[in-house]
Amino acid sequence: MARAPRQADIAAAAGVSQTTVSLVLSGNTDGIRLSETTRGRVLAAAEELGYVPDPLATRLASSRNHMLGVYTFASAFPTDVDGFYYSILVGIEEEAAALGQDLVLFTGTGGGDARAHDRTAIRRTRIADGCLFFGRHVPEEPIEWLLGSDFPLVYVGRRDELDGRIPFVGVDYVTASAAVVERLVELGHREIRYLRSDDDAPSSTDREQGVLAAARKARLRTRRIVVREPVVDAGLLRQWVADGVTAVVVEETDTGDLSAALFDALAAAGLTAPGDLSVAALGRPKDRPEVSGFDVPRRELGRRAVRLLFDQITGSGPRVVQQVLLDCVPNAGSSVGPLQKRPLN
Questions:
Q1: How confident is the model at residue 109 (pLDDT cuts 50, 70, 90)?
Q2: Is pLDDT at 112 greater than 50 in this prediction?
Q3: DSSP state of 192
Q4: Is the pLDDT of residue 110 over 50?
Q5: Pick from 192, 189, 139: which is nearest to 161 by CA?
Q6: What is the mean pLDDT of residues 29-53?
Q7: φ, ψ for residue 313 (rounded to 5)?
């Protein structure tokens, strides 16, 4: 196998010194007079030989290598264009390309969730100029170490760990979730159940906060509203209907498992939405555009996260922790309707 071309090869091909090649390729020619002819010969020779600069050497020379890291704590890169992360990753790629930055995927060690708190794997992200992080939870020790070393990083999703010192671009789930419940109340619903994940990630907590805030505002009885991920089956839904429940709200997480279980249970129970139960989702369930609720601005989430990270990398002066929340887009759908008065038995 032929070896990769080196700067010495470019110098020989262009008829200049290796020092001149280094200066031209690094762009570090301040205070040094080089003719455009010389510069052009060097660049032409480099292109003809297929020279690719060593990113580590470039980083040592200029403190930047124009590479942004993307670190995920679970399998986030999708094969399905309808996957939860797909639009976010499209936004990341689009904005990185627009800014002239390459992307590096850090997969950690051990594969899957085994690497979630792998300190060594997370610290390797420093090979890039900065890094975007995905994950429902924060491995605090290595992330705090990165923050302490002044390494630029941005989380995709709201974070409140480490005393609020983590820069992020997230979603205003509180306001969006409250709006969904407020709409149900306006349609006459008073007995509502909220199916939520049993996970205490900020995105789940925020959704619950919004649901309860709207319920309290409407003076609904809140003691039984929140139901943490039970076995969702036909029997549960029939019991709710018998108890007078007229509307169900479900959290839509990255897996979509909870909403899928709810719609399977509706079908198994022979119930329809909104005929028997009004159903709303806090997010857009896969392949169900008719479901009322809201859409998460995932593509813009990815784009804004890249811009925030790039601003950290290129900014001067003291770094300020920036935390951005994006608004969700209401989705009227057709799965909720006015309260239907049920005949007395």
A1: very low
A2: no
A3: E
A4: no
A5: 139
A6: 78
A7: -65, -40
Task: Please give the structure tokens belonging to residue 327.
Answer: 């608004």
Average pLDDT over residues 243-253: 96
Rg of the chain, C-alpha, whole Å: 26
Alpha-carbon torsion (121, 123, 127, 131), positive or negative:
positive
pLDDT in tens, 137-160: 888 888 999 999 889 999 999 999
Dist. CA 328–CA 332, nearest whole Å: 13
Are 142 and 119 in contact, with CB atoms under 8 Å apart?
yes
C-alpha 276/C-alpha 336 separation (Å) is 10
Cβ–Cβ under 8 Å, residues 290 and 332: no
Residues shown for the chain: 345
CB 319 within 8 Å of CB 107: no
Q: List residues bridging with 192 in a β-sheet.
A: 247
pLDDT in tens, 203-238: 999 999 999 999 999 999 999 999 997 789 999 999
How far apart, in whole angstroms, are the C-alpha atoms of residue 215 and residue 237? Answer: 21
Amino acid at 30: D
d(CA 129, CA 150): 11
Cβ 245 vs Cβ 194: under 8 Å: no
DSSP type of residue 127: G
The span from the CA of 91 to the CA of 77, in Å, is 13
What single string gives the DSSP state of each residue in 196-215? E-S---HHHHHHHHHHHHHH
* 3-class DSSP assignment, residue 323: strand
**Residue 268 DSSP SS3:** helix
Name all domains of the chain by residue range, CATH numbers in brackets: 7-53 (1.10.260), 67-171+298-329 (3.40.50.2300), 173-295 (3.40.50.2300)
Share the mean pLDDT of the chain. Answer: 87
**Tokens, residue 60:** 């040592």
How far, in Å, CA of 267 to CA of 271, rounded? Answer: 6
* 1 three-state secondary structure: coil
Residues 76-98 have pLDDT tens digits of 565 565 667 889 999 999 999 99
Strands (DSSP E) found in 19-59 = none
